[in-house]
Predict the structure.
Amino acid sequence: MNQNDALEELQKQVVRRNPAEPEFHQAVSEVLDSLAPVIAKHPEYKDAKLLERICEPERQIIFRVPWVDDSGTVQINRGFRVEFNSALGPYKGGLRFHPSVNLGVVKFLGFEQIFKNSLSGLPIGGGKGGSDFDPKGRSDNEIMRFCQSFMTELYRHIGEYTDVPAGDIGVGARELGFLFGQYKRITNRYESGVLTGKGLGWGGARVRKEATGYGTVYFVQEMLAAQGQDLEGKEVTVSGSGNVAIYAMEKVHQFGGKVVACSDSGGYVYDPAGIDVDLVRQIKEIERGRISEYTERRRNGSDYAAGGSIWNLPCHVALPCATQNELTGDDASALIRSGVLAVAEGANMPCTPEAMKLFRDAGTLFGPAKAANAGGVATSALEMQQNASRDSWSFEYSEQRLRDIMVEIHRSCFETAEEYGRSGDYVFGANTTGFSRVADAMLAFGVI
Ligand code: NDP
Ligand code: 2IT
């Protein structure tokens, strides 16, 4: 069987063995599509069935999360932790609390995390977890009871050297506080390195909160710089208005770009004068409100559209920072028509395969999630480093480390693409570089 047939057969096998998990199938397909050249160069990967092994999680945990809401009603949610690959270090990846979470979603995220974490160059394996719990409209006490129940099962599976969760959609410093408190209570260990994204007063690292958004924008700067351009004066659209989106917007403005639109799951705001990031932070991060409140409070003639696609607005740079498959083929066509220069994925898998193909065919600079949003997990690894040495670094030093890491990720993706004659193809560069490091470690360990 030739390389391409073998990869196609493996893709079919993944679909057969993991029914009804379309997001997982999509994530696997995107990686396998890149790997024929590297497998051809390294027959030892094929002989060791590395690809087959990498598509099978090392461990998948599914558990009941019972809790009592404020009205005294018992609620049952489902908890997940998929420990996908520990070749390069302890499983590492966030927890997502959102009603759309199911096993397939957690597996797609965990699979992506393997290659992203490898690309970071830091000693972390790949994992992901979460729950179908919907935090929207829940009181702090309800969030606390849910988190305590979730950790009452999760604690036995995690640890500084085993598996280190962090935040993702619906999980930030508040949730991590409740989770860490319960872990500490059950285990009687102040084991700071068991979770990252912690508050600054109890073991958290400076710049972790900003890291994913900042890192995405550093990656964009590197892609533009390779073409002799930069962000100065560019108009930028950012979807979402959560953790990743807010700090991506802040960094775009620091680089002299202008963010003209952002969104949440209800709709988007267009502000031609430039999005007021402090106002977005106040509404979304502090008050946990809706982005629809922005126009009324901004009072400068900005517009709010309920529904519709934010990608119909013209921009030079598009940063999807909300959720998977939020940018479709139609959206990509609209962006290309309006002359978009660069797209970088702050969210995980936000562009559909059709959108990615359109960007590739149009020659749009495209930074895939594994590379472009790796700054968050990389800074989590720096948090683990600080926890292990009981140290705490300054903002400036931490940001410099993040920047260096993003520059290096860009360089390795860019150079790998060049080496294989795929100049400018960051998707190929990211998948191939991320995969090779994991594959070499797995080879060294034998068949396990
Ligand atoms: P947050 O919960 O802070 O924010 C999520 C944002 O996306 C909100 O504006 C939310 O709107 C919007 N959103 C969520 N789901 C949907 C949906 N189904 N349709 C439309 N909008 C939606 O999450 P993060 O900012 O942390 O995460 C955003 C993305 O970035 C995710 O893909 C995540 O996996 C990825 N990521 C996060 C990292 C991190 O460090 N946090 C690291 C790397 C990637 P609303 O408020 O209406 O729900
Ligand atoms: O998708 C991601 O990389 C994250 N949600 C961050 C994971 C982490 O462990 O910091």
